[in-house]
Amino acid sequence: MNENNLVNAPTQFATARCLLRKSELAIVDDRVAWALRTSAMFEFTPNWRRSIDPELALRSLQSEMDAMARGEELIYNAFETASGAYVGRIDLHSWDFDAPRCEIGYMADAATCGRGLMRECCLHLIAWSRSQGVARVQALCDSNNHRSIAFAQSLGMQHEGVLRNYGRNGSGELYDEVVLAIVADRTSP
């Protein structure tokens, strides 16, 4: 696994109920509408407000596309196949190709929550990364973000520990991060 695997990753994936597409400028309206509908759920997401402003959302999408072109991360936007409804954004980032490992991030749309669509999409991307030789997929969650922690556990991730005073929240207060991961069986290096 290396940067080329990310650059050459499929532009889209289909799951039983969703289509995952790499970020593209054409979805800016979907992303702005998503941010407006879902703002109450973004308490633990830094800089989410930039997704509400169409110009900033466009720049954010361009930045995502640039990072993908450099092989730094994979970012997919999920849409329900039957309705075309936006399901959310999933990214695989913080790659260590030597280990090999990555981190998964997920932000669901409030309008489609509770139906298992985001879980289905995340499980698909985890399975794809494992098929590419990734031995560890982890999630870091603010220790107060119980919904995100429960979601990571629903993906099969195990609680591994807590990183104390890991960062500062929007109010400037220090917070802890919970580390969860799903790992492959160990093999010899």
Strand content: 25-35%
Structure classification? alpha+beta
Q: Quickly count the domains.
A: 1
Number of E-state strands: 8
Contiguous runs where pLDDT drops below 50 for at least 5 residues:
none
**What is the percent of helical residues?**
25-40%
Radius of gyration: 16 Å
Task: Write a structural description.
- With 189 residues, this protein is of the alpha+beta class.
- It has a single domain (3-183), classed as Gcn5-related N-acetyltransferase (GNAT) (Aminopeptidase, 3-Layer(aba) Sandwich), CATH 3.40.630.
- It is built from five helices and eight strands.
- The chain has an eight-stranded mixed beta sheet with strand order 1-2-3-4-5-6-8-7, with helices on both faces.
- Helix 2 packs across helix 3 (54-69).
- The radius of gyration is 16 Å and the shape is globular.
- 26% of the residues are buried.
Chain-wise SSE layout:
Elements (H helix, E strand, L loop, with lengths): L2 H5 L4 E3 L3 E5 L5 H11 L15 H16 L4 E7 L5 E11 L4 E8 L8 H15 L4 E7 L3 H9 L3 E11 L5 E10 L6
Parallel strand pairs: 5-6
Antiparallel strand pairs: 1-2, 2-3, 3-4, 4-5, 6-8, 7-8
Which key phrases capture this entry?
5 helices, 8-stranded mixed beta sheet, alpha+beta, Aminopeptidase, 189 residues
Summarize the structure.
This protein has five helices and eight strands.
